[in-house]
Specification:
The structure holds 2 protein chains of 2 kinds. By secondary structure, chain A is mainly α. Chain A has a single domain, classed as MetI-like (MetI-like fold). Chain A has 11 helices and no strands. The longest helix of chain A is centred in the N-terminal third of the chain and has 31 residues. By secondary structure, chain B is mainly α. Chain B has a two-stranded antiparallel sheet. Chain B is globular. The relative contact order of chain B is 0.11. The chains are: A mainly alpha, B mainly alpha. Chains A and B meet through helix 1, helix 3, helix 4, helix 5 and helix 6 of A and helix 1, helix 2, helix 4, helix 5 and helix 6 of B.
């Protein structure tokens, strides 16, 4: 690479671009402390901590939060099993239809969520399936598979095939190799994939509105508050909670996989 | 002295299975692939078929009940003026958002690929990843705060004396509404903000693959920086740019939350799907509308493939 330096124009454009991505999020934090309840006035007329207490005591926030955690937990579990299986298959051999399978895994997040949502909604309607927690989980697990898969397949590729053979030569059976050789090597990548899947599912609203029926997840609760605001500062507090629940796993996933050639999250 | 056999005795089911899989690797492959393929095949492809099937049904205009007979009537409704309007508006928005995203994303990707080293590389990576992965609704909400009439943009415009200018601009039909948060421009800005990050990483990956030797050769042959960029870097990075545009374009095409929260309630494809399946209760028409982005994306992907974008993914 030539040892030339970046021009000032490029530096400014790149810096402004990153600022554009980050400043709006910071604003949410400011607004959670505002004393103004009826509007989004900037700058806030005063700062207070009272909204955290108000939000804590609001009975209508807890059930959606619980439902979201349940859905995200179960969807992540299913996605981790299915994503790891498919990654193991794709890593170990080339076979007919391999490209088609990788396209099939990618499709649920490459196509707009409204298509996945509407497709599931049509299927439930055609087959007369009533809405339940499981209809939400069905949709979430489907688009979370690719997240786990991306992380697992990258780690499988880095794994030297020799260690599996060595394990077999030393008399271990498949289960022992999996338990004592494969799993410790895959562990952090799976954990990273799982956390990203959890973050994605916890926050998902586009597909969920089609698969939830009358149930309210936390993002659906937030969406209804955005369309018809009731107590704005409470929404701000919930926004911070949602942000934290998605932000922390992402950061953790990054640190778990950062020495690899492929870092977690590159394939959302 | 008894010599131990070279082959260990079997210690149960796990050993027998290991031996079977060792002799028949295809069997192991089938066992690994069966559960995920069954899931994706039944849940995802099955649902997509249900969507397609539903779009060939029609709705009885008097009773409002879905008639389960195959017909093209619902598709004929798509080309009605008001529905065609929705499709064209969405296409135009997706195209504009994609172009604007490319312009904003390129300097970030270019700097990260060519100049950022070590610590700065990580800063750029996290700087893109964190906004991309953080909560979608929270990001949209943040923009509602920013663009609100009493929000930070108005405050800033007033402070630098551009308040009257902005008020004047908002009066223009195509530009504004009562505030930026109810204007088409607001919708556009938020679309760009939400879907632009998806473009940066494929772009950056493509730029990183441009070989340094070619840049040196270009410089040796006397090309200026701008010439090198135009004739070497840009053409080589183009497949990556197209690859990045797939996500931005596709995701804008189907989004129905942003136009619902920010904008002048002009309808987009996603919003039409959402409303027809919900309040209107017209599942067939909603399904037919959902088929439109699939067809558009198939065409888009075919073009992207010809431009070599798939090798850049």
């Amino acid at each position: 690479m030539p040892s030339e330096r970046a021009s000032t124009g490029l530096k400014i454009a790149a810096g402004l671009g990153l600022a554009f991505l980050h400043l709006p999020i910071l604003l949410i934090f400011l607004y959670a402390f505002t004393t103004e309840e009826k509007s989004y006035a900037f700058p806030p007329p005063g700062l207070t901590l009272q909204w955290f207490g108000v939000a804590w005591n609001r009975a209508d926030i807890w059930p959606p939060l619980w439902l979201s955690l349940q859905v995200a937990g179960l969807a992540t579990l299913i996605a981790m099993i299915l994503g790891t299986l498919v990654a193991a298959a794709m890593a170990q051999s080339r076979f007919f239809g391999r490209d088609q399978i990788s396209l099939l895994i990618l499709l649920p997040i490459a196509l707009p969520g409204v298509i996945t949502g509407m497709a599931l909604r049509s299927a439930f309607s055609v087959m007369d399936i009533p809405f339940s927690v499981w209809t939400i989980i069905l949709g979430h697990a489907t688009f979370c598979i690719v997240i786990v898969y991306n992380n697992a397949v990258a780690r499988f590729r880095r794994l030297h095939g020799g260690i599996m053979e060595a394990s077999a030569d030393l008399g271990a059976n498949g289960w022992q190799t999996f338990r004592h050789v494969l799993l410790p090597n895959l562990g952090s990548a799976l954990l990273a994939g799982g956390m990203l899947a959890f973050a994605l599912s916890f926050d998902e609203v586009i597909v969920t509105t089609f698969t939830a029926g009358q149930q309210t997840t936390l993002p659906i609760w937030m969406l209804s508050e955005l369309v018809r605001p009731r107590q704005r500062p409470v929404t701000n507090v919930v926004a911070i909670v949602v942000f934290a629940v998605t932000f922390l796993p992402i950061l953790a996933a990054y640190y778990l996989t950062r020495d690899g050639d492929h870092t977690a999250g590159a394939g959302k | 002295m008894t010599s131990r056999p070279a082959i260990l005795p079997e210690r149960g089911l796990a050993d027998r299975l290991t031996a079977t899989f060792w002799r028949h690797p295809r069997l192991l492959l089938a066992v690994l692939l069966a559960p995920p393929l069954l899931w994706l095949g039944v849940v995802y492809l099955g649902s997509l078929s249900a969507l397609l099937l539903q779009s060939f049904f029609s709705i009885d205009e008097f009773s409002g009940v879905v008639k389960q007979e195959l017909t093209l009537k619902t598709y004929a409704e798509l080309v009605r003026a008001q529905n065609l309007d929705i499709i064209l508006r969405t296409l135009l928005m997706a195209a504009l958002v994609t172009v604007a995203s490319a312009i904003i994303a390129f300097p970030i990707a270019y700097y990260a690929a060519r100049f950022a080293r070590g610590r700065w590389k990580a800063v750029f990576y996290l700087g893109v990843m964190l906004p991309l992965w953080s909560s979608y609704l929270v990001k949209v909400y943040a923009w509602k705060l920013i663009l609100a009439r009493e929000g930070i943009v108005t405050w800033f415009a007033d402070h630098i004396g551009a308040g009257p200018l902005m008020a004047r601009a908002l009066e223009e039909q195509w530009f504004g509404g009562s505030s930026l948060s109810t204007s088409p421009v607001g919708t556009f800005i938020v679309f760009v903000y939400i879907w632009m990050p998806y473009m940066i990483l494929p772009m950056q990956a493509a730029l990183e693959r441009v070989p340094g030797s070619m840049l040196e050769a270009s410089a040796d042959l006397g090309a200026t920086r701008a010439q090198t960029f135009r004739t070497v870097i840009f053409p080589l990075a183009l497949p990556g740019i197209v690859a990045g545009s797939i996500f931005t374009f596709s995701l804008t095409l189907g989004d129905y939350i942003i136009p619902q929260i920010i904008g002048n309630s002009a309808r987009f494809i996603g919003l039409a799907v959402y409303q027809f399946q919900g309040t209107a209760g017209n599942l067939p028409l909603a399904a037919a509308f959902a088929v439109v982005p699939i067809v558009i994306m198939l065409i888009y992907l075919a073009i992207a493939k010809r431009m070599g974008a798939f090798d850049a993914l």
